Amino acid sequence: MSTELPSNSIVIIGAGLAGWHVIDAIRSKDQDVPITLITSDNGDRYHKPMLTMAISQNKRVADLVRASGMDAAKAANITLMANTSVTDIDAKSQQLQLISTTRSDPANTGYAALTYGKLVLAMGAHPIFPKSLPEELVWHVNHIERFGQLQEQLQGEAQRVAIVGAGMVGTEIAEDLLKAGHRVTLMDINQAPLAQMLPEAATARIANAIKSQGIEFLGGAQVMDVIKNDDGTLEISYQLGGKEKSFIADHVIASTGLTVDKLLPTAANIDFDTRTGIKVDAPTLRTSTRNIYAIGDCMSINGVPCRYVAPLRAQAATIADDILGFEHSGYEHKPPMIRLKNKAISVMATGIPTASGNWQIKTETDDELVMELLDDDGKIQAGVTIKAPVLA
Fold first, then answer.
1. Does 3.30.390.120 match the CATH number of domain 338-387?
2. For 226-273, what is each residue's pLDDT tens digit?
3. What are phi and psi of 381, to 5 degrees?
4. How high is the pLDDT of residue 102?
5. Fold: same for 128-254 and 338-387
6. 79: which strand partners?
7. Alpha-carbon dihedral of residues 169, 174, 179, 180, nearest 10 degrees?
């Protein structure tokens, strides 16, 4: 079965923040151009960064959804293909192969083909599950559906939760669960939280702040295995300081980074890096394949993945102008300010911070630390400001 869309039709794959931002940007300039949104879920609109704060605020899935996929699609005058996955892209014929995600028997699923005029890949990135973290035993908080399932499991009395990975997301979730009354162990292969982003002088303050709240932090810990016991609890085995240790938890959450599925970029012969994602031309956000764009978590600019919410509106506006044929000045990528949403400590980073490099201390007191990362020419490449929280 094949569906022929008008030659000016726009197809967007992915109904996260990036995909809906593109729809908003196009509709602000053209109310009638045909748009089809394809998503493997129901397409509901919600603000994903809220997921790392919602459990302590007792916000349920219904509280976080701003509009159902059906209502949002009707309001935007688009065609929504919910619960649908794209299995192949034929870039020459500009045709997609689709399959339903709600049918378990592929033989009876009913493959379909859909043509496009312009295609936008807004499919995001998905969590990395190392072999030591079996996906069937470990949670992630990267999608509202999975978040809702975890939230249901955490209802009632306090539970023991282990979080593997102390980057931005893991550190925020740890505080959120602690505030909700749970016993939290935060683990990382590095010695301190945010250790891949910031220098030791900065991360040591973050580690002290979260430990002062009552979060147990295990730095330098390499998880070896997670095993489910007969009573339903989980045993986490790990190495620390050359010794094998273990402890028991009720739940384990993986926050060990993101990766971009290579299936569709490979099928469409798009320049792609397994670590950073789809490569795009910065001014236009076009991929290397004609009539295909990328936005958000799945794309990278100059070898750097773009996995922050703040630039999405500007990215979407550029794609809308380029697709519709309007003149535009080109997207200028500016790394957004990075804010850790923890209340235990205020952390704000600018530029492209990396742990290694020539970090210089500008201010250092008990209440504040300001550092700058200088490049080889002495120019400021990044900065970080860490402050103790203001107590009410």
1. yes
2. 999 999 999 999 999 999 999 999 999 999 999 999 999 999 999 999
3. -100, -30
4. 80
5. no
6. 36
7. 90
What is 128-254's CATH number? 3.50.50.60
Say which CATH superfamily domain 2-125+260-324 falls into. Answer: FAD/NAD(P)-binding domain (3.50.50.60)
Dist CA 145 CA 156 (whole Å):
20
User: What is the rounded distance in angstroms from the CA atom of residue 99 to the CA atom of residue 258?
Assistant: 24
Global pTM exceeds 0.90: yes
Helix, strand, coil: what percent of the chain each, to 5?
A: 20, 35, 45
- Give the residue from 66, 56, 64, 81 showing the smallest Cα distance to 21: 66
Contact 234, 241 (CB under 8 A): no
Tokens encoding 95 = 């045709």
CA 127/CA 188 separation, integer angstroms: 16
The domain ranges of the chain are: 2-125+260-324, 128-254, 338-387
Tokens 């290397």 locate to: 288
Bridge partners of residue 151, in order along the sequence: none
**Model confidence over 162-182: pLDDT tens digits?**
999 999 999 999 999 999 999
* Region at 285 (left for phi over 0; alpha for psi -120 to 50; beta for the rest): left
Express each pLDDT in 53-95 by its tens digit.
999 998 999 999 999 999 999 999 999 999 999 999 999 999 9
